[in-house]
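Example S7 (structure tokens).
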């Protein structure tokens, strides 16, 4: 995925439409002004590692997961505003590895269903909350309690 390389998809959204379940979209460095609806089974990878790819959703949701299992690796997500988080999880599983989420508004990550897994991530919201969890099922005996320290390492 590259806006400038010949033969590559011009946007992350275009690449996602073709990726299909189990597909991986490798993204070249840069800032992409998009609002992503992430389909089941897709993986987004920053080609050159952590912090080299930024998805800027403006004042709206930069990444939405409504079901399935989605993985983001090394991607920076920026966005949100007075009415929207940067990341919205309403179902399925969102796994963020070595990523960053920065809110411009009320909350960085809003999970009102599904599951959120994070490893080696940074989450910030200078003007609001880093996380908002609503209607989440109680933890099972296999789960350990989650703390903010788990997300910020």
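Recovered sequence:
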């Amino acid at each position: 995925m590259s806006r400038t390389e010949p033969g590559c998809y011009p946007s992350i959204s275009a690449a996602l439409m073709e990726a299909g379940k189990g597909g991986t979209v490798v993204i070249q460095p840069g800032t992409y002004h998009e609002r992503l609806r992430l389909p089941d089974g897709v993986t987004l990878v920053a080609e050159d590692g952590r912090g080299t790819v930024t998805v800027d959703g403006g004042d709206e949701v930069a990444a939405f997961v409504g079901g399935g299992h989605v993985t983001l690796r090394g991607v920076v997500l920026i966005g949100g505003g007075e009415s929207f988080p940067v990341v919205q999880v309403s179902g399925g599983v969102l796994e963020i590895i070595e990523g960053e989420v920065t809110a411009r508004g009320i909350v960085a990550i809003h999970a009102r269903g599904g599951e959120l897994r994070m490893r080696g991530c940074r989450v910030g919201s200078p003007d609001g909350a880093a996380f908002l969890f609503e209607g989440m099922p109680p933890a099972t005996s296999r789960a350990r309690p989650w703390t903010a320290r788990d997300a910020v390492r």
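Notes on this example. Residues 140-150 have pLDDT under 50 and may be disordered.
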